[in-house]
C-alpha cells in the first residue's frame, strides 16, 4: 500500500484527489489549517471507520509557511508521494496579500522539497507541484504548451513561477522525482464560491428560483480553458507514476469567454439572455424563456421576467493586470500519460448547475417555510 501526503486537502482538488487515491488503496494523510470555523466540509464524507472499510485517512494540522511543521509531517508520515496543492489560490486576492501569497505559494514548495531532502528521502518520495496556466499570463502564443514562455501577471502567478522553477531545480540538482502539472482552470460543484464559474452557477440558480435579482461580474471577455477537477486529479496521479519525472500541461484545448459561460448556465435552466453595451456599461437581459424546461426542473416560470437585467458589470472585480486568453495544448499528456478529459464544458456546466440548483432549493424551501435564522447578536 502506498502512502500519500496531500497539502491543501480541504480545497477543491485536495478533496477529489483524496477520494481518488483512497479508491486506489492508498493510505492518505492530509494537511489542514487551523480555522475558527469548520473547514473540512469537502472531505467529511471520507471519514469512515478504518476497521470497517480498511481505508486509511488521517488529517494533520499544518501550514505551508511553517517549515518545522512540514519537516515533522514528512518524517512522521513517510510518504511515497507528496501532492503540494496548498496555496492562497485566488488571483485577485493575491494583489491584496502579495507577500503572504509569495510565502505560501512560492516558498511553500521550497519547504517541502527541503523537508524531503533533509530527511534523506529523495529516492523514496515523489513530489507533485500544483503549477498553473496563470504562468503564461500575458499572451505570448496560443495554444500554450510546455514550451511556451511564461509572463506572469499577478503576485499569485509570480509566486507560482518560483515554485515551478524550484521544482525543476531540485529535480536537476538532487535527482529528485519532482514534477509540475501545469493545470489550466478546472472547476466542479465544490469549486470555491468566489471563483467565477461557481459564482455564476450559484447566482443563476438563485435567480431562476427567484431568490436573487442579479449577478455582478468583472471582465466578461476573459477567455479560459475550463475542465472538470475530477479529470484533472487523475492527471496529477499519472504524472507521478511515470519512469521519468517531467512537467505536463493539463487542459481541454477549448477556450470560452466568461460571457459565454454565463449564457450556458442560464441556458441550462431554459433562460436565454442577451448582452449589450460595452465595458463597464455591459449588461445581460432576459430575452426568452423556455417554460417547458423550467417546469421540467420544477421551477415556477412566473418568477422569471422578460427584460429583467440579470447581469451587470462591477469594476471592483477587475484586476490591475488581467490574463486575457488561456487555451492549453495537452498533447504531451495525451501521448505520454494517456490522459484524456471525460467532461467537456457542457457536461461541466450541467454538473455544476444541477448541484447548485439542488443547494439553492434548500434555501428556497426554508424561505417559503418561513424559517428564520436566529440573530445571536440582539
Ligand atoms: P482551493 O483554494 O480550493 O484550495 C486551496 C487549499 O490550500 C485549501 O485546502 C486551503 O486551506 C489550503 N491552504 C491555503 N493556504 C495554505 C497555507 N498557508 N498552508 C496550508 N494550506 C493552505 O484551490 P484548488 O483546490 O482549486 O487548487 C489546488 C491547487 O492547484 C492550488 O495550489 C492552486 O493554486 C492550484 N491550481 C488550481 C487550478 C484550478 O483551476 N483550480 C489550476 C491550476 C493550479 P483552507 O481550506 O483552510 O483555506
Ligand atoms: P483565475 O480564476 O483567475 O483564472 O484563477 P477566476 O475564476 O477567479 O477568474 C477567471 C476569469 O474570470 C474573470 N472574472 C471574474 N473572476 C472572479 N473571480 N469573479 C468575478 O466576479 C469575475 N468576473 C470576471 C477574471 O477576471 C478572470 O479573467 C483560477 C484559480 O483557480 C487559480 O488558482 C488557478 O491557478 C487558475 O485558475 C488556473
UniProtKB/TrEMBL annotation:
GO terms for molecular function: GDP-mannose 4,6-dehydratase activity; NADP+ binding. InterPro entries: GDP_Man_deHydtase (IPR006368), NAD(P)-bd_dom (IPR016040), NAD(P)-bd_dom_sf (IPR036291). The keyword NADP applies. It comes from the Bacteria. Keywords: Lyase, NADP. It catalyses: GDP-alpha-D-mannose = GDP-4-dehydro-alpha-D-rhamnose + H2O. SUPFAM superfamilies: NAD(P)-binding Rossmann-fold domains. The keyword Transmembrane helix does not apply. Residues 5-352 form the NAD(P)-binding domain. Its EC number is 4.2.1.47. Its cofactor is NADP(+). GO terms for biological process: 'de novo' GDP-L-fucose biosynthetic process. Belongs to the NAD(P)-dependent epimerase/dehydratase family. GDP-mannose 4,6-dehydratase subfamily. PANTHER family: GDP-MANNOSE 4,6 DEHYDRATASE, GDP-MANNOSE 4,6-DEHYDRATASE. HAMAP family: GDP_Man_dehydratase (MF_00955). Catalyzes the conversion of GDP-D-mannose to GDP-4-dehydro-6-deoxy-D-mannose. This is GDP-mannose 4,6-dehydratase. It comes from Olivibacter domesticus.
Amino acid at each position: 500500500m502506498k502512502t500519500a501526503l496531500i497539502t491543501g486537502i480541504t480545497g477543491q482538488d485536495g478533496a477529489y484527489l483524496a477520494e481518488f487515491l483512497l479508491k486506489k488503496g492508498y493510505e492518505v494523510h492530509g494537511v489542514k489549517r487551523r480555522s475558527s470555523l469548520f473547514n473540512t466540509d469537502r472531505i467529511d464524507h471520507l471519514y469512515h471507520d478504518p476497521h470497517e472499510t480498511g481505508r486509511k485517512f488521517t488529517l494533520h494540522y499544518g501550514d505551508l509557511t511553517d517549515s518545522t511543521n512540514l519537516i515533522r509531517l514528512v518524517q512522521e508520515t513517510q510518504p511515497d508521494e507528496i501532492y503540494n496543492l496548498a496555496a492562497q489560490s485566488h488571483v485577485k486576492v493575491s494583489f491584496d496579500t502579495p507577500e503572504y501569497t509569495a510565502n505560501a505559494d512560492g516558498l511553500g514548495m521550497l519547504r517541502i522539497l527541503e523537508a524531503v531532502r533533509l530527511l534523506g528521502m529523495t529516492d523514496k518520495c515523489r513530489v507533485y507541484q500544483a503549477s498553473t496556466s496563470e504562468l503564461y499570463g500575458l499572451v505570448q502564443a496560443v495554444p500554450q504548451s510546455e514550451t511556451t514562455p511564461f509572463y506572469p501577471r499577478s503576485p499569485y502567478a509570480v509566486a507560482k513561477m518560483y515554485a515551478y522553477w524550484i521544482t525543476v531545480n531540485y529535480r536537476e540538482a538532487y535527482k529528485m522525482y519532482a514534477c509540475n502539472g501545469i493545470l489550466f482552470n478546472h472547476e466542479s460543484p465544490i469549486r470555491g464560491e468566489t471563483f467565477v464559474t461557481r459564482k455564476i452557477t450559484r447566482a443563476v440558480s438563485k435567480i431562476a428560483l427567484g431568490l436573487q435579482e442579479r449577478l455582478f461580474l468583472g471582465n466578461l471577455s476573459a477567455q479560459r480553458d475550463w475542465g472538470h477537477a475530477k479529470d484533472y486529479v487523475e492527471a496529477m496521479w499519472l504524472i507521478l507514476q511515470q519512469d521519468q519525472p517531467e512537467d505536463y500541461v493539463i487542459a481541454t484545448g477549448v477556450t470560452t469567454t466568461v460571457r459565454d459561460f454565463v449564457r450556458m448556465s442560464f441556458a441550462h435552466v431554459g433562460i436565454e439572455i442577451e448582452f449589450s453595451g460595452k465595458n463597464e456599461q455591459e449588461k445581460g437581459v432576459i430575452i426568452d424563456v423556455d417554460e417547458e424546461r423550467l417546469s421540467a426542473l420544477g421551477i415556477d416560470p412566473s418568477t422569471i421576467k422578460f427584460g429583467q437585467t440579470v447581469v451587470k458589470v462591477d469594476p471592483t472585480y477587475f484586476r490591475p493586470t488581467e490574463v486575457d486568453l488561456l487555451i492549453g495544448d495537452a498533447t504531451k499528456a495525451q501521448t505520454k500519460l494517456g490522459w484524456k478529459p471525460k467532461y467537456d464544458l457542457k457536461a461541466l456546466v450541467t454538473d455544476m448547475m444541477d448541484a447548485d440548483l439542488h443547494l439553492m432549493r434548500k434555501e428556497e424551501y426554508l424561505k417559503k417555510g418561513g424559517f428564520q435564522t436566529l440573530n445571536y447578536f440582539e
